[in-house]
Amino acid sequence: MTNSLRPVLAFSIMAILFLLVGFMQSWSVALAIFNLCLISSIMTLGVNIQWGYAGLFNVGTMGFAALGGLAAVLVSKDPVPEAWSAGGLNLLFAVLVAIAAVSAIVLIFRRMSKGPGRALVLSPVIIIGYFLFRYFFDMATQDIEAVNPAVTGYLGGLGLPIILSWVVGGAFAAGAAWLIGKVVLGLRSDYLAIATLGIAEITIAIMKNEDWLARGVKNVAGLPRPVPYEVDLQEADWFISLIETLHSGTLSAFTGDDRVAQLATLVMQSSSIFVKLCYSGLFLAVLLIILTMSIKALNSPWGRMMRAIRDNETAASAMGKNVTKRHLQVFIIGSAVVGIAGTMLTTLDGQLTPGSYNPLRFTFLIWVMVIVGGSGNNLGSVLGGFLIWFVWIEAEPVGVWLIEVSTTWMVESNPVRLHLMESAQHMRLFTMGLVLLLVMRFNPGGILPEGIQKERR
Amino acid sequence: MRKILLAATILATMTGQALAAETIKIGVILGFTGPIESLTPDMASSAELAMKEVSDSGALLGGKKLESIRADSTCVDSAAATAAAERLITADGVAAIMGADCSGVTGAIASNVAVGNGVVMVSPSATSPGLSQLKDKDLFFRTAPSDARQGQVIAAILKSRGVSEIAVTYTNNDYGKGLSDSFQSAFTAQGGKISMVAAHEDGKADYSAEVGALAASGAKILAVFGYIDQGGKGMIQASLDSGAFDKFVLADGMFGDALTDAFGNDLNGTIATVPGAESQGAKTFSDMAEKAGITVGGPFTGESYDAAALIALAMQAAGSSDRAAIQSKMMAVANAPGEKINPGELAKGLKILSSGGEIDYVGATNVEFNKIGEVFGSYKEMEIKNGKYELISVR
Amino acid sequence: MTDILNALVLFSNFVLIPSLAYGSQLALGALGVTLIYSILRFANFAHADMMAFGTMVTVLGTWWLQSLGISLGPLPTALLALPFAILAAIGMSLLIDRSVYRFYRTKRSSPAIFVIASTGVMFLLNGIVRFIIGPNDQRFADGERFIIRAREFKTLTGLDEGLAIKVSQVLTVGIAVMLVIALFMFLQKTRMGKAMRAYSDNEDLALLSGINPERVVMITWIITAILATIAGTLYGLDKSFKPFTYFQLLLPFFAAAIVGGIGNPVGAIVGGFVIAFSEVMITYAYKKFFMYLLPQSMAPEGMMQLLSTDYKFAVSFIILVIVLLVKPTGLMKGKVV
Question: In Å, how far from its chain's centre is CA C159?
Fold first, then answer.
């Protein structure tokens, strides 16, 4: 099979899968899966930029996605003026103290030479700075969190349209990536993995416990949407008449009250599909923009340089390439893409729930997508995102069905059968591991391997 | 793009048509996996008990049957929960939903799926005060009282027992944090002192650091707002092991025999609150539940029965299993005026409604909706004596 | 005087003893990680799940023995089931090595490929464990729970503060010490141990001097399987067994191994205790401790807590980052490739 046919075939199979879900379950379900597939693809592209282009082993995807989600809240929710007036001033002091302390520490570090003298000056600065900061900060957070804790109890956001947050989410993730990259990128690959894994956990811990920021585990619900609400559509004249014209055939069979009732049902069903299609349109646009840019970048001189660094760091740096700087660059870009996807996910959910971030789902699953799709290949990442998310969602119903079929000969109450039925959802994890290992072993390039074939070790 | 959009819309509406059938489907969406998986089977069975009673009566809309379609809310993963609800509503075509359980996923399902599709949701256990603010188009109801109320009840119980200082630990999620907030404000408002508050994460094996810090605060009693099969139990275990605390105050998520079975007499003097009442209805329900093999006294079982019963009664009152029709009658069947209906009397209620009469459903938990579709709720105050729970009073 | 005693007892009860037990558990886990790292040269993300697998077999074995009415008296029955669990874990480890890692070893793949493969193994083991025993908390400790209870200690000594020592804590520390001694004897005295150290120091040189690499790798997997199963069982006896909790132990293991100096067995032990003690000490509230030590007038008002317990697990990572920044080779000078 030629290389150009492969993606076409792979994506056609994917399309057939969606059609199957549409006909067998419902179109609403198919579209819901499709939207999450789009988001997964974008996340996968982000990781692929880091791993596929530059060989950076980042397992902190969860943290960047969560930061993106935080951006959605901070941009779109209305500010809470009571909270600002209650604790804003102290918070400002706390920030000032922190800035002063950190700059003093940096100054001492730079000006004084290494030795016991520096440690002697440094330690009181750190200790006093920390306690002064905690003093103002604790007062501020206590006051802010006391403002109507059941509903607000946080500073709120900026009250801007949520679509802006998609950019801000990318910027948040990029900023965090810069900070992290500065610290850990000089180290060898496994260390980067462990450090990013830990930093992702810490990010989640901060989001769970700092209630003044985004209500912590109390969640922020009811984020505004970038698309219309179903209930508004159901009352909009243009939408009703659109459905009326679309379904004139079906409706002509009814008259009077029956027709009105029939129309109302149709409008309600269509509104939910319409909203999902709006989301699909937005997500698809973002995916296409990022995909085009990724493909362009990969084929540019910059992309060639990146691959050269990935394949042989020593040779690349001998050629005068600044490896650490390039790594930092690509780490930031990839993380920003993951952040954007994270913001989109929170937008789709309509709420930020820090407690639901879990490394298996938000980090390792994305990695499976990258490897299975084909690391280094952008189209492959998109395919991996689609396929693996699809399998992840449909593995449960299919698993239950398989167990049901294979145990029909057993009695209803057979303990083995009951146990298997109960454990069906854990097949997900097992399947993912198996798929990953099989692809790595027998098709190391993934389903759509990198165009320029190279012996990867 | 527009063509695809239109085509998809047509296809979707064509396949989405529900056929008028002899059975009416009700969605039961609870966290069959996840943090409260030990509670949900009994809750689902209780709801199905009500559905069976309705079906067996043969009185529903001229002899129709109710069919329960279960789906997993996972309790924590909003994406999975909304996907499951999406399937129930659009693929299975349920008339209404009994659920969801945990507050976070309940909010997600309500605002992302149920409201958009005009489907009534009756949650038996989502207790977060935040849900009162939901923009729900009057589609969201709950038979479990808000935690804002439970916090006040616990504070009042402590006041009556003369407790003036307490340390608090809560499970680090919206339930624990929300309850802890409402308790703290009620307790400090009555002059009590909260010596320390520390969250605990569920699913961690070691809680000695949390217990150590709490013990250092000097309080003699620890309030535990968590889950019985999660970190809440771990906190109690670590407290008993290290001798840090031997008296506890427990909220509804901690109530259950698993605790007394494990620690027995070590817990004597511990106080617990659990939603419920000591009414005739509650008693009838527990008898019925026992016969059906449901753990008696488990949390939220009566609420689940009531949630399912209310949906069926609203259907009958409206004379249709249409989603909007159900919504229009929810309040009417739950509140006065009308004949009082207890558990086990659903057939009687259905008959009164079909003959045009009015009912006031009381159920297992004294259901009475306020204007936003929430119950005020009553709580049982329990105390552990000789390693067993004993009822002290109902508040 | 009693005040000082009270303060000491308080400190031992809430800081010293829990940290000692926790540190031993971390040290055993980190030893496994560090051994794989020094011989196979990759960070094994599946180590915590291998621990869960081994412990699961122990739990099942314990239940089986209990159903037969066999027990160890005051000691937990799990100790009897342990040997079978170790055999199962060794079998599983070798099976995984044959079917997964050996392929990449012959290809001489980069460490990152190994790590990704190990995440695949992690998923597999996660699924298997949950499939067999479910995702819930399992308690399998039996026998006596306490050597001394807090209340008994109070009546015994007349102090205000109690001291509780659990059987599982003593077992943990005791077994860990024995295991570590045995491991070091093996590495220092036996032929195989010397071969392993040589292989770890310089692979090519070791190959030239006639060491069979596959044998070294096999022995390494066997040792790590033993360590993982014992560490997991001890942890489960002390706390409880839950698959997800075990998965989350991975982070502190790596932190301990790297802080101590990855690839260095002594470092893993030091790292385990450093992480355990700092986690507990930084998040402990010292209010009561100082109330005993200081005169009434100077009694502290706040909780005297450096960091909220919410960030307990973050402590290990902050230490890790600091060590990486200041001394990337770790405290005991590990190998950094």
Answer: 33
